[in-house]
Amino acid sequence: MNADSGASEIVSAVEALGDPERAASSQRFFKTGPGQYGEGDRFAGVPVPKLRALARSLRGLPRSVIVDLLGDRTHEVRHLALLILADNYSRESGDPERWVDVYRDAVRGGRVDNWDLVDVSAYAILGDRCLRSGDWSELLEWAASDDLWQRRAGIVATFAFIRAGRWEQIEAVAPLVIDDRRDLIQKAFGWMLREAGKRADEQTLLRYLEVNASSMGRTALSYAVERLSTERRAHFRSL
After folding, report:
1. What is the pLDDT along the chain (239 residues), one digit of tens a residue?
2. Residue 86's domain spans which residues?
3. Whole-structure pTM value
4. Domain annotation covers residue 16
């Protein structure tokens, strides 16, 4: 497989790597049943390390093929497309915005439709673009969306700033998501707070929690305090 491969050839390669037992397990794990957040999603049963290895062989894949892969019904094919998209974006020396536009269209078109797909791409593409430009207003727009996956993408995209030692982006996103009790929003919010305390400034995290812990959902708070001492975890949970 290489960058000259077509979409149908790549889909066949992903399917060939699949395992039926793993696919069945993945469909349960990613909540694909009726009424669940991943309803109707289809899995081939390919582990992420194999997808990453395949993505490396497809580095530089054209935009049109990536768009076709993002429209495929198989989850791992879309995951693979996002890995390649993020890599193309990071290596782009001319017009990186063209790759960000592909990503925006994919999320808004409902093709980045599970938490692992959001998490592997939001900070690496959207978040990094906002970091490079110095304008992170788009993160606030996404975090304010009612759509589950757009909102999670807006939260997780702050990780690009957190990795650079910046705190203010997740603090600005926080009021937009703190009252959302959906599990996948709670986990993303708490995860980013925890990472901000770890990578940016633990004292700022502690001050934030003193003021806001009582308003946070139990899941978000549990994630946020995970790296703190036993005494501090107990204190914030008591609030």
Report:
1. 888 889 999 999 999 999 999 999 999 999 999 999 999 999 999 999 999 999 999 999 999 999 999 999 999 999 999 999 999 999 998 899 999 999 999 999 999 999 999 999 999 999 999 999 999 999 999 999 999 999 999 999 999 999 999 999 999 999 999 999 999 999 999 999 999 999 988 999 999 999 999 999 999 999 999 999 999 999 999 99
2. 1-94
3. 0.95
4. yes
Spatial separation of the C-alpha atoms in residues 140 and 161, rounded to whole Å: 13
Q: Is residue 72 part of a domain?
A: yes
Residue 50 within a domain: yes
**Which CATH number belongs to the domain containing residue 90 in this structure?**
1.20.1660
Give the number of domains in the chain: 1
